Structures are given as structure tokens and as C-alpha cells.
């Protein structure tokens, strides 16, 4: 039987196990990923099963971890590295943006770096400062990086498998508030290709576009809207880069209204990029300007205040209400 | 490579070590340190209890490392600066910061809790080693201004692997900045043991590569710590540049309450380190020296209890910080796009109240 109930952490763990079994060149390393199994237990038991050569703790240095991954990838390995928390990836920024992202281009494709950078990502867990950043815009803004953010446990499994097989470096953003939610995962389901969005809910009246931790929030909003007689669709991007324009635009053209939902601060964000694209490509289908529901443009707030920051179903529905319904 | 010889002035059983390099501080001074150690221990216990009661989001305890905490605060003079990490709440309190203010961040508030400029205590740093270059900057600025300010910067053994650690040491040495780096080598970075951070003969030995004096000190011996740190502070103040100090100590608790240390270390190891406890050792020493009797001990425990009670009361209120403040200090002046967002939140909150 391939279908089981798994937490997202277990789904990711299974993906790592299956990838390591399938391909000897897959190695996992980072901080506390060895005997401890990662602070979120995503790498639980990997050292035990595959040995210290294939899953190991490094000295505590993110720049070193990313740099080591680059070198190992240049010499035949497929490293999957863990940044312990979103904001602790910043010491590796130089390696990621100047080298991981650019190596293929600088070498006219002769040096490819199939590295996966796993990032426990975003908020909603009552974390103290530096533990809840939504850092996707930094990566999405960097040419050469593929950026993936699963929203379901099944996708966590499938997309991580796809990311490990991907020829280019992938930033893999794991919504940490879902690590311990349980869902059905069928590991035999064909792996979704990177770059393909999925329509999670069909809806006639307006389209909500979301990714990662915001997808369940968008679905909850759609659920609420249905009780008020409004039929909202939800598109889950799955990949931020490459962006599946076709799926998103097709939905928005049908509904004529769109709200982009993301937890990250809104200014110069992925949500802004999506809204701009919809505006440019769907202008004649739109009944109202595209709206964004995002976090505020402030440092991520502390446990006691994070509920004010995070997009909520209510805030999404307020945005939907503002989509000029009177004039139609 | 010459191995550094550990500095210890008081043995785990309380007897004097008879070090040929450093003199044992006077009993009166040691009694003050003992008071602080008991206070620090009680603070750690209280903070950990507050986590269990849901009053604090998390607490990285310095249980077992109180001698480092106390010594770091004790050797600084008025005007000197302390750069603490998340594990150094006790050092900040000993530097005179209000205990409740020190814990505000961990209780779920949005700011560092205290005024760093007033106390010359930098905000507790979580991103590892990143505070160390700042410490060098403050020290270098003090020199440029002709002040004899000294900066004491704390970090852990794991943090010595970060690039910022090495950059900070090199900058400090090149600029002869008045900084004392104190590495609390508590043997673990969460689950990762020291052997995975460094195979050098000691962490202190790294100082030589940067051209600065270094010392390896028993981190559970407050007498040795204050003696060696005190000398480093005097040297820095006198224009003789930085020092790297490694304190040989142990993290008695798990990394934080969220961590399960049984996954990566044996109880036997913890038990072994309990024998070297910084409080037990100094207490035995002071009792043998006749400066600590039952009555004095009761008074010390009582005063530590007062600090704990103060912390409990201060963090017991179900206060929610004002959400409007989230927007107030992001920039020096008003930012138009933030004003609109603050208004949106205010309107939502008003609607919440009225619904
Ligand atoms: C740049 C960075 N990477 C990772 C972390 C996550 N983290 C927090 S504490 C810690 C271990 C630090 O160990 P050490 O420096 O020895 O200090 P200790 O906690 O033992 O006092 C880690 C990995 C972090 N805070 N900052
Ligand atoms: Mg440590």
C-alpha cells in the first residue's frame, strides 16, 4: 500500500528516503540533521539508515554548508541541504545568489548544480524573532533559482522528489506550520512537474491565487464565501519560479476577478509580481483591479501579535468584497 | 602548536588550585559572586518554569553556565558594553537590566525589551555570531572617540564556526579594538557536539591565528573567570587590544524547552558535569573559608527568591502589546505605505471590538 496518513515532516522524510534509495548520489547535510533528525525531525533516522556518509551534521555555518553543496554538486553529488530556519539562511546568501544561482550560466551550462536548499519557512507557529520569515522574494528575484513551495503533504512528497531530480538548484520552502498536520499521501502518485500550478477549488465568481502556507487560508476563505453565496476558486502555485502563468491566467479570465494571497510582506513581493502579470495579461477580462492580501511591510511580529499580520480568511473576504461587484 | 593551559583557581571540591599566574580574588569579592550565582540559578529555574506555564515562548537556559554569566557582568566597568546572545539573559540582568525587561522578547513582545543605550547592553542576538562584528564596531568607535570603553562579546562554541566569528576576531586584532571575546564552550550546538565544530586543540587556540592573546579558563570557576576576564578588560582599556577567551563549561539543560537532549547525549555525561557545578564549588570554598554561614545562605536564597518573584509577577499579566506599535519604529519617520496598513489594522480591531 502506498497511501498513508503522514505529517508533512514525515512526507518530506519519506521523499528523502526514497530519493536516497533511488540515487546513491543524493546526500543530506546541515545543522542538527544527523542523530537529532533535524529540529523539525524531517531528517529523522536518515543517518541511521543510510550512514554518516550520506546524512551528516556540518560545522555550524550556513555559508559553508551552501558552499560545500556547490562543490559536491560539481563533483557528482546531489546535495539536499537544510537551513534550520528561514532567517538563518541569510549567512548563505552570498553562496546562493552569487554562485548556486549563477554557476550554470557562467559556465554556459557545463557546470550544473542539482542542489536542493530546504528551508523551514514562514510563520504561524508562535516563533520568536528570526524564526518566521517569508523569504521567497529574495530567491524568486534571483535568476537561476527555481523556487518551490508545497501546500499539501502529498505535494511536499512529490515536489521534493521532483526538486531532487531537477537539474538546477531549487529553493524548497516548507511551510513550517504544517509540519505536524496529518494528511493522506500516496507516494505512488506521479510526481507533479515543477512549474505546474494546480486548481484546488473551482469557482465562478473570483480566483484566489496562493502558495505554500497561504493555500489552506485561501481555501478556508472560499469555504466561508460559499456560505455567503459567493463561489471562489483557488489556485495553488506550487512553484513560485517558474510561475505557471497559463493556469493562473486561464482561471482569472474565467472569473474576471482575482485576489493574490501571501504571507510575506507585500511591497516588492511575489504577490506583487503575480498581480502585475494578471493585470498585464488579463486586463480586458478583469472586472476589477487585482488585489493583494499579504503580510504588512514590517518585520515579522512576535507570537502575541502574529495573528494581526497573517492573512486571514476575513481579510481575504474583505478584499473580495472590494472587487467592484456593484457595477456588474 | 602550543596547547593552552587551563586556568582554574578553585577546584570542584572547593579547595584552592594554587595557580601560578593568577591570584585568588578576596573572599568578600567571591561572596558577592556567590550571591550573583545563586540569583542567576534561581532566575534560570524561574524562567524555565514560566515556559512550562506558557508565560514565555521559549527559554534557552544558562543553567550550569552561571559562572560565565556572572563573571561577564562583574568585570565590566561603568560605560563598558556587553553583547549577549539568547542564552545570556542572566548576564544582562547582572549588568543591571530589569529582569522583566530582559524577558519581554521571549514572552512574546515585539522588541528587545530594554534600552540598549541606557544599559550599554546590546539586544540579545539570535542569528549566531552576527553580534560579534557589531561589538568590534562599538569598540573601534570608542577608540576613535578617545574613550577607554571596553566591549565584552559573548558567543557559544557552535557560533565559532560561523564566518562572522572569524571576521570579527580578525577586525578586532587588526584595529587593536578593545574587545574581549568570551566563548562559552558548553560542548553542544543544539545536538551537535564540539568535535563537529572544531578539531583545534582548543577554541581559544584560534586567537593565535589572528594575532591576539587568548586564554582557556574553567568556565565553572567564577574566580578564574573574573581574574582572567578582568585582566583582559584592563588590557583592552589600556590600548593593548582584544583577547579571546574560551570558558570550558557545560549546558546542563536541553538547548531550549523545545529540545529533547536524550536524543543525542547520555545522562552520565550530565551527571559528570554536575560534579563541577559552579555554585557547589564556590559554596564549598566560601564555607571552608568561614565567610559563608547558614544565616548568610538563607539571606542569599531569600534575595534570589525575590528576584524570581519579581519575574513571576512581571510576566504574569495577560498583556497584549499594542499592535499599533508594530508600525511605529520600522523607519525613523512616518512611512506613507505603513500608515495605510496601520489604519487597516486599526479599523479591523475597532470592528472586532464592536462585533
Ligand atoms: C545563523 C544561525 N544559524 C542557525 C541558528 C539556529 N541555532 C540557534 S542556537 C544554535 C546552536 C548554537 O550553539 P552554540 O553557539 O554552541 O551556543 P549555545 O546554544 O550552546 O549557547 C543553532 C544552530 C541561529 N540561531 N543562527
Ligand atoms: Mg554551545
- For the biggest β-sheet of chain A, the strand order reads 3-2-4-5-7-6-12
The largest sheet of chain A is: 7 strands, mixed
CATH architectural type of the largest domain in chain A: 3-Layer(aba) Sandwich
The outline of chain A comes out as globular
Give the N-terminus to C-terminus distance of chain A in angstroms. 51 Å
| Highest CATH level, the class of the largest domain in chain B | Alpha Beta
Beta-strand fraction estimate of chain B: 5-15%
Number of helices of chain A: 12
User: What is the terminal separation of chain B in angstroms?
Assistant: 73 Å
The whole-angstrom Rg of chain A is: 20 Å
Structure explained in plain terms:
- The complex is a heterodimer of chains A (328) and B (355).
- By secondary structure, chain A is α/β, with parallel strands linked by helices.
- Chain A folds into two domains: 4-185, 3-Layer(aba) Sandwich (Rossmann fold); 198-327, Rossmann fold, CATH 3.40.50.920.
- Helices cover 35% and strands 21% of the residues of chain A.
- Chain A has a seven-stranded mixed β-sheet, with helices on both faces. Chain A has a five-stranded mixed β-sheet with strand order 9-11-10-13-14, with helices on both faces.
- In chain A, β6, α7 and β7 form a beta-alpha-beta unit.
- In chain A, α1 packs parallel to α7.
- Chain A starts with a strand and ends in a 7-residue tail after the last helix.
- In chain A, 57% of the residues are buried.
- Chain B has 355 residues and is of the alpha/beta class.
- Chain B has two domains: 27-321, Rossmann fold, CATH 3.40.50.970; 322-355.
- Chain B is 44% helix and 9% strand.
- Chain B contains 13 helices and seven strands.
- Chain B has helices at 27-52, 66-74, 89-94, 99-103, 116-119, 131-144, 163-174, 206-210, 222-237, 267-274, 278-288, 294-314, 336-354, and strands spanning 81-83, 151-156, 179-185, 188-189, 192-193, 214-218, 243-248.
- Chain B has a five-stranded parallel β-sheet with strand order 1-2-3-7-6, sandwiched between helices. In chain B, strands 4-5 form a two-stranded antiparallel sheet.
- In chain B, β2, α7 (163-174) and β3 (179-185) form a beta-alpha-beta unit.
- In chain B, α6 (131-144) packs parallel to α7 (163-174).
- Chain B is globular.
- The termini of chain B are far apart.
- The interface between A and B is large, with 38 and 42 residues.
Amino acid at each position: 500500500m502506498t497511501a498513508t496518513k503522514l505529517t508533512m515532516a514525515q512526507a518530506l522524510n519519506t521523499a528523502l528516503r526514497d530519493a536516497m534509495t533511488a540515487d546513491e548520489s543524493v546526500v543530506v547535510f546541515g545543522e542538527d540533521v544527523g542523530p537529532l533528525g533535524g529540529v523539525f525531525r524531517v531528517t529523522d533516522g536518515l543517518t541511521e539508515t543510510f550512514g554518516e556518509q550520506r546524512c551528516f551534521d556540518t560545522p555550524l555555518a550556513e555559508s559553508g554548508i551552501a558552499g560545500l553543496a556547490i562543490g559536491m554538486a560539481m563533483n557528482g553529488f546531489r546535495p539536499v541541504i537544510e537551513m534550520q530556519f528561514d532567517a538563518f539562511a541569510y549567512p548563505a546568501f552570498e553562496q546562493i545568489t552569487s554562485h548556486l544561482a549563477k554557476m550554470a550560466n557562467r559556465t554556459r551550462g557545463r557546470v550544473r548544480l542539482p542542489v536542493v536548499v530546504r528551508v523551514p519557512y514562514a510563520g504561524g507557529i508562535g516563533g520568536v524573532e528570526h524564526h518566521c520569515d517569508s523569504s521567497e522574494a529574495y530567491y524568486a528575484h534571483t535568476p537561476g533559482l527555481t523556487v518551490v513551495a508545497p501546500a499539501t503533504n502529498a505535494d511536499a512528497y512529490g515536489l521534493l522528489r521532483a526538486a531532487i531530480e531537477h537539474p538546477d538548484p531549487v529553493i524548497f520552502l516548507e511551510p513550517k506550520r504544517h509540519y505536524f498536520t496529518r494528511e493522506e499521501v500516496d507516494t505512488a502518485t506521479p510526481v507533479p512537474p515543477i512549474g505546474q500550478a494546480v486548481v484546488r477549488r473551482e469557482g465562478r465568481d473570483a480566483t484566489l491565487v496562493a502558495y505554500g502556507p497561504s493555500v489552506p487560508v485561501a481555501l478556508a476563505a472560499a469555504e466561508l464565501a460559499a456560505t455567503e453565496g459567493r463561489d471562489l476558486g483557488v489556485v495553488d502555485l506550487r512553484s513560485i519560479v517558474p510561475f505557471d502563468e497559463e493556469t493562473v491566467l486561464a482561471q482569472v479570465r474565467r472569473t474576471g476577478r482575482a485576489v493574490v494571497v501571501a504571507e510575506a510582506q507585500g511591497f516588492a513581493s511575489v504577490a506583487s509580481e503575480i498581480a502585475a502579470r494578471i493585470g498585464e495579461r488579463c486586463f480586458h477580462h478583469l472586472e476589477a483591479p487585482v488585489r493583494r492580501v499579504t503580510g504588512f511591510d514590517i518585520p515579522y511580529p512576535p507570537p502575541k501579535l502574529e495573528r494581526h499580520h497573517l492573512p486571514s480568511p476575513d481579510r481575504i473576504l474583505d478584499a473580495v468584497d472590494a472587487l467592484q461587484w456593484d457595477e456588474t | 602548536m602550543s596547547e593552552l593551559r587551563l586556568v582554574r583557581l578553585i577546584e570542584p571540591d572547593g579547595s584552592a588550585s594554587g595557580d601560578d599566574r593568577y591570584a585568588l580574588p578576596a573572599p568578600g569579592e567571591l561572596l558577592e559572586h556567590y550571591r550573583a550565582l545563586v540569583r542567576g540559578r534561581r532566575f534560570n529555574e524561574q524562567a524555565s518554569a514560566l515556559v512550562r506555564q506558557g508565560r514565555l515562548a521559549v527559554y534557552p537556559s544558562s543553567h550550569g553556565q552561571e559562572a560565565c554569566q556572572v563573571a561577564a557582568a562583574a568585570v565590566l566597568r561603568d560605560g563598558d558594553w556587553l553583547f549577549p546572545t539568547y542564552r545570556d539573559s542572566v548576564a544582562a540582568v547582572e549588568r543591571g537590566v530589569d529582569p522583566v525587561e530582559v524577558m519581554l522578547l521571549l514572552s512574546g513582545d515585539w522588541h528587545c525589551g530594554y534600552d540598549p543605550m541606557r544599559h550599554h547592553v546590546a539586544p540579545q542576538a539570535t542569528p549566531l555570531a552576527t553580534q560579534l562584528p557589531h561589538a568590534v564596531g562599538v569598540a573601534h568607535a570608542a577608540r576613535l572617540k578617545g574613550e577607554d570603553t571596553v566591549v565584552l562579546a559573548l558567543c557559544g562554541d557552535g557560533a565559532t564556526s560561523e564566518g562572522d566569528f572569524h571576521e570579527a576576531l580578525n577586525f578586532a586584532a587588526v584595529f587593536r579594538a578593545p574587545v574581549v571575546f568570551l566563548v562559552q564552550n558548553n560542548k553542544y550546538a543544539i545536538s551537535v557536539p564540539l568535535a563537529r565544530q572544531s578539531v583545534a586543540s582548543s577554541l581559544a587556540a584560534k586567537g593565535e591565528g589572528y594575532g591576539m592573546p587568548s586564554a582557556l579558563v574553567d568556565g565553572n570557576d567564577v574566580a578564574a573567570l573574573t581574574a582572567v576576564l578582568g585582566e583582559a578588560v584592563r588590557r583592552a582599556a589600556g590600548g593593548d587590544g582584544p583577547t579571546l577567551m574560551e570558558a570550558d563549561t557545560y549546558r546542563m539543560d536541553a538547548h531550549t524547552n523545545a529540545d529533547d537532549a536524550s536524543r543525542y547525549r547520555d545522562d552520565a555525561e550530565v551527571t559528570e558535569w554536575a560534579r563541577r557545578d559552579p555554585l557547589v564549588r564556590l559554596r564549598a570554598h566560601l564555607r571552608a573559608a568561614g565567610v559563608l554561614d547558614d544565616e548568610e545562605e538563607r539571606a542569599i536564597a531569600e534575595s534570589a527568591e525575590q528576584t524570581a518573584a519579581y519575574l513571576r509577577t512581571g510576566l504574569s499579566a495577560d498583556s497584549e502589546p499594542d499592535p499599533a506599535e508594530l508600525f511605529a519604529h520600522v523607519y525613523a519617520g512616518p512611512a506613507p505605505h505603513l500608515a495605510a496598513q496601520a489604519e487597516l489594522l486599526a479599523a479591523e480591531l475597532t470592528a472586532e471590538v464592536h462585533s
